[in-house]
Write a structure and sequence with these properties.
five-stranded parallel β-sheet; Rossmann fold
């Protein structure tokens, strides 16, 4: 049986906005990419940041890292003090796609994002279109994150979404696999062109 798509769920970072801590630390380390890579793989790591996405406070996270690496305290504190410099901006083609889909009136459009609760207000200030979703689930506010099952249950139940009638778009393969286990039509975002092809194959045209 073919299901008619009536809902589209977007990830934000890596799909609608370009976020990368390296953008900040390239400035901090005067373009020294080796030093940037070392710092982000050894000190302020992805694993450390995802704990904030899951609800750990920034204060607690920074305190832990400063205790672990007291000699790098200034650099560690920059991670969240200058967090807004980690964005290059919107991913314009995908934002236009989001706006077109929203304007069509054919779909409910939601966001499911791994994001620190404490940085969400700043995110809306940086990217006002975040207010245009029919609903947003922010991991830090829910105290869980993708790819854990709990967060998918939250968005499906909160907005009464039928998974088979919904599309989920994320740049993280692990999150896409998790979404597929809920029978969501999950798309691993790689390029705008491939995303359009996938959506067209699901009878979503724009």
């Amino acid at each position: 049986m073919e299901h008619k798509i009536d809902t589209i769920i977007f990830d934000l970072g890596g799909v609608l906005v370009d976020w990368n801590p390296a953008y900040l630390y390239k400035k901090v380390f005067n373009g020294d990419v080796t030093k940037v890579n070392w710092f982000l793989s050894s000190v302020c790591t992805t694993e450390w940041n995802t704990e904030q996405d899951a609800g750990r406070t920034i204060e607690e996270a920074v305190k832990q890292k400063v205790t672990e690496f007291p000699e790098y305290e200034d650099w560690i504190r920059l991670y969240y003090n200058e967090w807004h410099h980690m964005f290059s901006g919107p991913i314009h083609q995908n934002v236009e796609l989001f706006k077109t889909l929203k304007a069509s009136g054919n779909y409910k459009i939601y966001a499911l994002t791994n994001w620190s609760a404490e940085k969400w207000d700043k995110a809306i200030e940086l990217f006002p279109f975040f207010k245009d979703f029919d609903g947003v689930v922010v991991s830090g506010k829910e105290k869980t994150r993708k790819p854990f099952p709990k967060i998918y249950n939250i968005i499906l139940n909160r907005y009464n979404i039928t998974p088979e009638n919904a599309v989920f778009i994320d740049d993280n393969k692990e999150n896409v696999i998790a979404a597929s286990s809920f029978n969501l039509n999950a798309i691993h975002f790689k390029t705008h062109e491939k995303l359009k092809e996938k959506l067209n194959s699901l009878q979503i045209f724009f």
